[in-house]
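wait is this the right file?? whatever heres the structure
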């Protein structure tokens, strides 16, 4: 059984590595060709950034498989020897803290390199080492307190019930919903400052748009994203009464009011179409499948690993194997997401104007240094949004009619759109 799992995991990693290698080769070739959507200099920079990030991802994948082999051949038995083999809630939590702690330490250099080397060299990272350390301490404290409580409760369920996989799924699914509810008002403010958007024409226009689709929110806020990163973004967060509109200060700085309204119109399209509940349902299906499959692993597997089938090791195996199952689900989930994005684009173009949405998308691509092309395998597996060229084409934009060597006009791109 253990040999079969190692073989399956190795195949999964080999596929991921192949996709990464193909993506690197594809972008390395395309970045030398004629630029699209941005000037030649920015096009080359965007290509270099995409390759740099993909190379880090490739090495991370190699380390992932080495960690997997370490855990199932030696690591789990080693930690079990340190915390003892008693099947209790305390032992399970200590076991899992050690498991997650080792993974965190091993993967930490990749996160630091990505943020302070790659992102900083390409002009994205604004975070200081002090700020990074403070954020990390906050995250660790939340994990120890809240994560420890959740892991302890899940361990108690495993010890107490034969059908623990079903009750465990219900617990984690419920917690994921709770996190969606409390994230905007409790968790996110621990890391960023959220200021209500000033009264004025923009706020009034946003409130009018929300009223048209029946969205009642906790408010419209500006997040000080620029203190950590220069990329542009906006989102609707929360569920129920905690729903709020969040605009990055970087987005407000770079986009016109009309472009902002078009972007928010796109997000309102997701709300109108119930996409958040579709995503929650898909996540629930993945989680249920994972708990069902990995909740029925035979005891012989744990004997081969060198540990008894107690609560801590069962949870650790679930966490270790869930990415494999997620990878199998990914193409389907990505396909559904891309379909939803097209529909949201259409809704956003109706709410805020097609020209304004196109102009906003062009600025997002340029400012975020997003290379506009990817290998078909990457699109098939990982793209939750349609390729930007396809989105723009669907909106009636002709990329050949924009001057790639100049800044996008502040007042939009009227005249560059195909008219019906």
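ok assuming it is, sequence goes like this
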């Amino acid at each position: 059984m253990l040999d079969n799992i190692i073989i399956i995991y190795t195949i999964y990693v080999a596929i991921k590595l192949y996709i990464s290698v193909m993506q690197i080769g594809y972008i390395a070739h395309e970045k030398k060709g004629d630029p699209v959507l941005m000037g030649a200099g920015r096009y080359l920079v965007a290509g270099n950034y995409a390759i740099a990030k993909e190379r880090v991802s490739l090495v991370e994948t190699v380390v992932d498989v080495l960690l997997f082999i370490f855990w199932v051949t030696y690591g789990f038995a080693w930690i079990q020897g340190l915390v003892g083999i008693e099947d209790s809630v305390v032992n399970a939590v200590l076991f899992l803290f050690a498991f997650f702690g080792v993974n965190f330490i091993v993967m930490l250099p990749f996160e630091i390199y990505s943020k302070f080397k790659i992102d900083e060299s390409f002009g994205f990272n604004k975070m200081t080492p002090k700020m990074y350390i403070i954020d990390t301490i906050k995250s660790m404290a939340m994990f120890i307190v809240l994560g420890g409580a959740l892991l302890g409760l899940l361990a108690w369920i495993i010890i107490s019930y034969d059908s623990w996989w079903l009750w465990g799924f219900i617990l984690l699914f419920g917690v994921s919903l709770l996190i969606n509810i409390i994230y905007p008002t409790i968790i996110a403010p621990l890391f960023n400052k959220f200021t209500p958007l000033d009264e004025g024409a923009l706020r009034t226009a946003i409130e009018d748009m929300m009223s048209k689709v029946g969205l009642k929110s906790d408010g419209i806020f500006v997040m000080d994203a620029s203190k950590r990163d220069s990329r542009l973004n906006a989102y609707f967060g929360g569920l129920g009464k905690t729903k709020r509109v969040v605009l990055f200060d970087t987005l407000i700085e770079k986009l016109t009011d009309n472009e902002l309204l078009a972007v928010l119109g796109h997000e309102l399209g997701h709300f109108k179409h119930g996409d958040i509940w579709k995503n929650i349902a898909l996540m629930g299906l993945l989680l249920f499948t994972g708990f069902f499959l990995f909740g029925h692993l035979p005891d012989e597997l744990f004997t081969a690993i060198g540990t008894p089938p107690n609560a801590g090791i069962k949870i650790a195996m679930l966490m270790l194997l869930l990415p494999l199952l997620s990878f199998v689900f990914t193409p389907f989930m990505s396909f559904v997401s891309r379909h939803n994005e097209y529909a949201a684009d259409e809704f956003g173009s109706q709410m805020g104007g097609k020209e304004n949405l196109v102009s906003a998308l062009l600025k997002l691509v340029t400012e975020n240094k997003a290379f506009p092309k990817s290998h078909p395998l990457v699109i098939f597996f990982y793209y939750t949004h349609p390729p930007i060229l396809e989105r723009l084409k669907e909106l009636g934009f002709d990329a050949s009619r924009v001057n790639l060597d100049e800044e996008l006009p502040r007042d939009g791109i009227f005249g560059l759109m195909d008219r019906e």
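The first strand starts at residue 194 and ends at 196. so i think its the right one actually
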